[in-house]
Structures are given as C-alpha cells and as structure tokens.
Design goal:
The complex is a heterodimer of chains A (249) and B (384). In chain A, 71% of the residues lie in helices and 0% in strands. Chain A is an all-alpha fold and 249 residues long. In chain A, helix 12 runs antiparallel to helix 13 (212-223), helix 12 packs parallel to helix 14 (230-243) and helix 13 (212-223) packs across helix 14 (230-243). The termini of chain A are far apart. By secondary structure, chain B is α+β, with helices and mostly antiparallel strands. In chain B, the strands form 2 sheets. Chain B has an 8-stranded mixed sheet with strand order 1-10-9-4-5-6-2-3. A two-stranded antiparallel ribbon of chain B has the order 7-8. In chain B, helix 11 (252-272) links the parallel strand 4 (240-245) and strand 5. Chain B is globular. Mean pLDDT of chain B is 90; it is low at 196-207. Classes of the chains: A mainly alpha (249), B alpha+beta (384). Chain A binds chain B through residues 39, 44, 48, 82-87, 89-90, 115, 117-118, 120-121, 147-151, 153-154, 178-182, 210-212, and chain B through 51-55, 58, 119-123, 132, 168-172, 248, 250, 286, 288-289, 291, 333-338.
C-alpha cells in the first residue's frame, strides 16, 4: 500500500470514528480524538504503518515525506497522538543523522522545536567541529534558537566574536534575542557601522525583543544620524513607527 | 570522609556539564557524608550555575541516579519532586532508580503518575552514567519506573489496573514491554491494607524558624503596569502569600499552574470575606526578561485578576536579594533560570515568614483559611 493510500485510509477511518462518536453520548473533542486513535483501532494501525514507512530507508524520499506530513498532522491532536510520540521522536532522530536523507532538515527542524537534547547536542557539536556538522552554522543556530533556556548562547557568542559568515551572525543574534545579559552586545552590533547591514538589522530585531525601551533610544539615534546608511536609517524609522514610541513615529 | 561544610569549591562556572559530572564521580569515590548530597542537588547550588536548562537537568539526574543501594535519606524530597513534576525522561528515570531502596508509603502512586506523564516523552536512558546512552541500551525512563514498581510488589497492588492500562500503550519496544510484564507478574491483585496508603501532604520547609525579612523593605519592585513599589510598602501591614515563577518556564505544572492557583486563591479569599486585607503576589525569578507587559500577559489568561493587593512583580534590579532572603531553590543559566523548585511563602504583616512551602503544591481552600486566620489575628498574636 502506498503512503497516499495509508493517509487516505487513516483519514477515512478517522472520519468514520468521529461520525460514530458524534452519534453516541456527548464527549469532549479531545476524548473523541483519543478514542479514534487509541492503540488497536484501525486509524492507529495506519499511524503504525506511517511510522514504519518513515523509518524505512529503502522507501523513496517522496513516500517518507508524505508519511512525515501525515504524522505531523496527526500530532495536532496531542491527546490522541500521545501514545505515538516517543516512537515518532526516535524515528525522527534516526532521520536527522541518516546520511544523504532529504528529510534530515525536516527532522532536525521538528526536533529542535521540541528542544530535543539528542539534536541539540549534534547541532552544537557541528558548530564546534564543522567536519561533523549536519547543517550549515546559520541553520544550526536558527534551529537552536528555539531553546530560550541557554542551550546555544555560548555558541552564538562564539560566532559573533569569531565568524564573518553573515548568515551565521544573523542567526546568532536570533539566539541572543532571548538572553537579557546580551543586551549591550546586541545594541553594540546594531550601532556598529562597520558591521554587515543585514546583521545590524538582526541586531535591531533582537534588541527590540530584549528591551523595547533601549531599542527606541538606539533606533532614534540611528534615524537621526545623517552619516549612517539610508537603508539602516529606514529600518530604524520603521521600528520606531511599529513600536509607536519614537519621535519619528 | 568529606563533610558538607568542608566540601571543596565546585568546578568553575565555565566548566562543561561533562566536567562537572566527572567532578561528581570523583566526589563519590571520596566517601562524602550524606549531608553533602542534598546540598549538591539543590537548584541554587553553584554546581549548576551557568548551565543551560538542558545541561542542568542532565547533570542533576546524574547526581540523583548514582547512589546505588545506599542513597542518603536527605535526597527523598528531590526524588518526590521529580516524580511529581518532571517531564524530562532523564530526571524521572534517575528518581525512579534512586527511590528503590526507600520504603515510601505513597511510592506506587507517585510512580504511576510519573509513568503516565513520561510515556509520551519516553526516551532511552542510562541512569548513573553521564555519557549519552547508546540506542541499544536496555532501559528507557518508562522501563525504569516500571522496574521500581515491580520491586514494590504487593505495595503497588492498588495501582495494578492503572499499570495494566498504561502498559497497553505502544511504547519504545522491548525494554518497556519486558518491564511492564515483570511488573504485572510481581504485583498481585490483592489490595494492600488501608494502613499502608497514606497521602503525602504539602511539605513545609523543616527546621525553618520564623524569621523576619524586614531587611527587604526597601527593595524596589515593579508591577505588571510598570508602577514602582518598595517591598515593604507592598507587603507590610497585612498577611501576604508570595509565589515565585517566571514566564518562560517550560513546565506547565509549575509556574503556569502557580499563577492560576494564585488567581484561584484570590477568588477563594473574596468568597470568604470580600473585605479581607490579604496580599497575593507572584514574583518573577527572571526580572530582566519579564517586563511589565509580559507579566500582565502571563497573568490575565490564567485568571489572575489584578488589583492593588493582587499583583505580579519583578525586582527593579537583581533578583539575588530575594533568593537569599527566602533561600529560594532556583538556579540560573546563561540566559535565564535553569532549574527551580516550587517555593511559596506566607508573610505576616510584620514581614515575618510564617510558612514556607517547598517542592509541593498547596491547597487553595486551606491556605485561604490560613491567610484569613492571620489577617484576623490580633496584631501581636503569634509573632516571634
């Protein structure tokens, strides 16, 4: 059976179960969802099959991508999907390090959103040792920025102090946008005329998240500075307009 | 033998989590006295300073899971808290293993609750080893919990049907299925005598004398509207209940629930006596991030109705004076909190600590009555 068939069967079974549930005694939506995906039901068998397809490296990337999309969609019913979560995570971890897999990025992205320690460790190791990197530094930092509890703060500071990779520097500022102790560093980058302009813009966004008041003051100074670049001054004006706090708003 | 007061300086704040784990392993080899370990497990211990939340929970699980057959009794509150609240497989597995040598009356209930919480997040673990477990390892967090349940035998009988239900979940496979089968084989259906089932109540911090925090009176705070207020001005003159939290907390059973319960407490007090002068406040651990707008946005959807005696607050400067004065169980990483326990404090109108509930939820009705009693007590009654 193809993945598309599994998906159709799963959706049909889900609908059938919902219809049956609607005719029975009143139940909360999450209870209906949990009952329709309960282990042993036909819809649950389809989820098992989808997990099998996703884990099977001999299947085509298209099949596995379709399985991944269906499983992610099933995850929107958290109570019902809970019994499959642990196995889904293990399969995604396998995908995240599978050589040559087109789905690696998707798996890394999904797991990093959940602050998965296995993936965080590998992304950080890739930043320390590029030979082992699963993705480019900017992508790794962007993924690690989902953790606002400090997993990548040190790596982000290292990138800002030692790398000229513009994309990585931008992504590093995304990480520091949740670190109140980085306010001065971020403000310094926003004001630094020798810095890449895209990086200065990322600095402005980060400062706005960290301290809107400090952002307004820095943005006002840039907007008033005839010696600064026009596009940067425009970004500053836009920021002030959006916050509604600046003199130029 | 190393005594708690002689404990050497912890590894530097720049040390990696792995280096700190190696330091713990080395310490174990030096036969430290039991009192060392509760100190090292405390969230605020310098052992965890500067680590990310992920590294902090991993290191703490390494400490908790490495005691073998002779765990020090002082670690029980930590085991109980992890089994009650943690959503991290490493922490739950370590607590389940550390619990085995103890004879805790409500062990089976705690373990079954932990099992239900951890199954969707189950993961391969290697309790007692800091290194990342290999995928071929023979244990997961759920299997460790089930193994501890199996060891309880008849003492887990009341939980047998719950275990059967949870064992029917699709799991990570072999280790969990095998541990579930062993648990069900070792736990008979007969119920234990009623005398063995005791509910565990909230734990007041033992050995904590009533003490004044009047020295904090001048500490500057800011509320959810940005209004400045001093600690004394906010809390003196009427009894107060203060819960600690931060808006970025990842565990919905901790800070989010704390604020919801503070809101419920205010409603309960209003129902008891609408005119009663009692202060209810949540104070954030993370003042640099939790700006007034964030405090308001966190409180409103949780039913926390702001008024002059019901506020969410942050310190205008550092949080450290509050941490020290209340001996709060909170540690900080590079960006924010990396671990915290539940801390709830009741102050009387003279800024004397009358109760300090740690590592546990509290009962809204019970505390409302307690606050009313304090509010109605004569001004000098019960003060130390």
């Amino acid at each position: 059976m193809s993945v598309e068939d599994y998906r159709r069967r799963y959706e049909a079974e889900l609908q059938q179960s919902r219809d049956a549930a609607a005719k029975g005694p009143a139940r909360a939506p999450h209870e209906v969802a949990a009952a329709t995906l309960a282990p042993g039901t036909a819809a649950a068998d389809s989820l098992d099959a989808l997990l099998g397809v996703l884990a099977d490296a001999t299947r085509s990337d298209d099949d596995r991508r379709a399985a991944l999309i269906s499983l992610k969609a099933a995850g929107f019913q958290p109570d019902a999907f809970a019994p499959y979560e642990a196995r889904f995570r293990q399969v995604l971890r396998q995908l995240a390090v599978e050589p040559g897999s087109e789905l690696r990025y998707d798996a890394l992205q999904h797991l990093s959103q959940e602050n998965d320690p296995f993936v965080q460790e590998r992304l950080l190791e890739g930043l320390r040792n590029p030979a082992t990197a699963l993705v480019a530094p900017a992508a790794a930092l962007q993924m690690l920025s989902a953790d606002d509890h400090g997993a990548a703060v040190s790596a982000a500071r290292d990138v800002l102090s030692g790398s000229s990779d513009t994309d990585a520097r931008e992504a590093a500022l995304g990480v520091l946008a949740t670190d109140p102790t980085a306010e001065d560093l971020v403000a310094g980058i926003m004001n630094d005329k020798s810095e890449f302009r895209a990086v200065r813009q990322a600095g402005a966004v980060a400062l706005q998240a960290l301290n809107p008041t400090a952002f307004v003051s820095a943005a006002q100074a840039i907007a008033d500075d005839d010696g600064d670049y026009d596009d940067i001054r425009e970004v500053a004006r836009n920021g002030l307009r959006i916050t509604g706090l600046g003199a130029l708003a | 033998m190393i005594r708690a007061r002689d404990l050497a300086a912890r590894p530097p704040v720049t040390a990696t989590a792995a280096a700190r784990a190696a330091w713990i392993d080395d310490l174990r080899g030096q036969d430290p006295e039991d009192g060392v370990w509760p100190e090292l497990l405390a969230e605020q211990d310098p052992l965890f300073a500067g680590l990310s939340a992920n590294d902090a929970v991993r290191l703490r699980a390494h400490v908790l899971g490495g005691f073998g057959e002779r765990p020090p009794p002082g670690i029980l509150p930590f085991i109980r808290e992890d089994l009650t609240y943690s959503r991290d497989p490493r922490a739950v597995a370590a607590a389940a293993v550390a619990l085995r040598p103890f004879d805790l009356p409500d062990a089976a209930e705690l373990l079954v609750e932990a099992l239900a919480r951890i199954l969707p997040r189950d993961d391969i673990v290697a309790v007692g080893r800091f290194a990342e477990p290999s995928p071929c390892c023979a244990a997961t967090a759920a299997s460790e919990v089930l193994t501890t349940l199996a060891g309880l035998g008849v003492r887990a009988s009341a939980q047998r049907s719950a275990i059967e239900g949870l064992a029917a979940w699709p799991t990570l496979g072999g280790p969990v299925a095998a541990a579930a089968a062993r648990a069900l084989a070792q736990i008979p259906e007969a119920a234990p005598p009623p005398c063995c089932r005791q509910a565990a109540g909230p734990s007041a911090k033992p050995d904590m004398p009533r003490r004044s925090v009047a020295a904090l009176a001048g500490l500057q705070l800011q509320d959810q509207d940005g209004a400045a207020c001093a600690f004394g001005e906010t809390f003196a003159g009427a009894p107060s209940l203060i819960g600690f939290f931060y808006t970025r907390c990842m565990n919905p059973a901790k800070c989010s629930l704390t604020i919801s319960r503070l809101g419920a407490l205010r409603r309960e007090i209003a129902a008891l006596d609408p005119g009663l002068a009692v202060n209810i406040a949540g104070v954030t651990y993370d003042p640099d991030y939790d700006a007034p707008a964030r405090l308001r946005a966190f409180g409103e959807p949780r039913g926390f109705s702001f008024d002059p005696r019901t506020k969410l607050l942050r310190t205008a400067g550092a949080f450290e004076p509050l941490r020290q004065a209340f001996e709060l169980g909170v540690g900080f990483g590079p960006a924010t909190v990396n671990a915290h326990r539940l801390d709830t404090v009741i102050l009387d109108g003279d800024l004397v600590v009358r109760d300090h509930i740690v590592r546990s939820e509290w009962d809204v009705v019970e505390l409302a009555a307690r606050l009313r009693e304090l509010a109605q007590a004569p001004a000098s009654a019960g003060r130390s």
